[in-house]
Amino acid sequence: MLTTVDSDTLDLSAHIRGGDRITWGQGTGEPLKLIERLVEQRAAIGDVEVFLGISLVDTFCSEHFDHIRLISYGAVGTNAKFVRTGEMDVLPCHFSAVPNLIGSGQFPIDVVFAQISPPGPNGTHSFGFCNDYLPIAMSRARVVIAEINTNVPWVYQDVPFDEELVTLAIESDEPVAPYEPVRPGALETQIARHIASRIEDGATIQYGIGGIPPAVLKALEGHRDLGLHSGLVSDEAIDLIQAGVITNARKPIHRGKSVGAVAFGGDKFKNFVHANPNFEMHQSTSTHGAATLSQITNLVSVNSALEVDLYGQVNAEQIGTKYLGAIGGQVDFMHAASTHSDGLSIIAMPATLGKSGRGRITDKLAGPLVTTARADVDLVITEFGIADLRGKTVNERARALIDIASPEHRDRLLASWNE
Q: What is residue 44's three-state secondary structure?
């Protein structure tokens, strides 16, 4: 039984010290009431750092940074504006590395805010929407404050929630962070059709964030016996599970179970996963770890990028001086998928960048960073087709990529390559 206090009388300064680093769940796993208390009481607490994953809410504004310093692993969600203004620093690492950085003390966490469910069938609580690196952070933190929210589902986990690590808890019945699914347009739908044409029945799917994944999941409605093992899971995947498309019947591990680490979901997700033995939320050491991914021999990894150069190098982070993305789990999954004969690593993106018309298949990356190495990329897909880079020489790869660039850029790209 957790020790609970009234949230209105919670004095965080009695538990948090100046100089502490705090973290909490991401996506729909953010403990909104605890975050509000932190903002309100920041002056009494003193200067702290917050390690923030993908955020879907606008809790912070510039005036809060008199005592709060933000760090994240990427400029995704509402984090983007703070990275752009210099009010958030970036920790550049693979998502799979975050638990190890915390556990080893190289990136220590002092305080954890954990949004959890009410007790479930076995009498314990659950992280619900977000497991990822929270268990290891809790095991190393000096203080763990839980927010028990009646709107959080009780979800099966790879490791049960450890109530003994919780210092105290508050209760909440407020709505969780809202998730608005992206509605794919004609462009995303065309790209998704290309992707679906290369995914075989029985494959195990991982997908990233953005506008293309929802279209891909929609395009897979005619497939059979797909598996789900993804860092991110969302409402759209639930549709495929309920339709009998995702059965996990051919997964080499966790057979019969869909697995994720972080959820972006609303009532559809909550109602489906609650006490569902066929759905599990795992720590990111499991979802993204090399030991696990090496066993998923039929893994298909679908991710996006800002641009790809003619060597096949992927930039998913920065254009010029503007940091716009993240390393995230892309490299973890794409490297694993590309190493298996039945695996497939896919980068999918529109051929041009927004209203500017800038080509995303490019002779030279616009930023200084390479997110994913060329050797880890099997397919690059735009609305104009599929560049299958497997078994191709440097020259053959370049020409395959030029063929799926926007037509108005192809002559320039070919001339640049020939030079």
A: helix
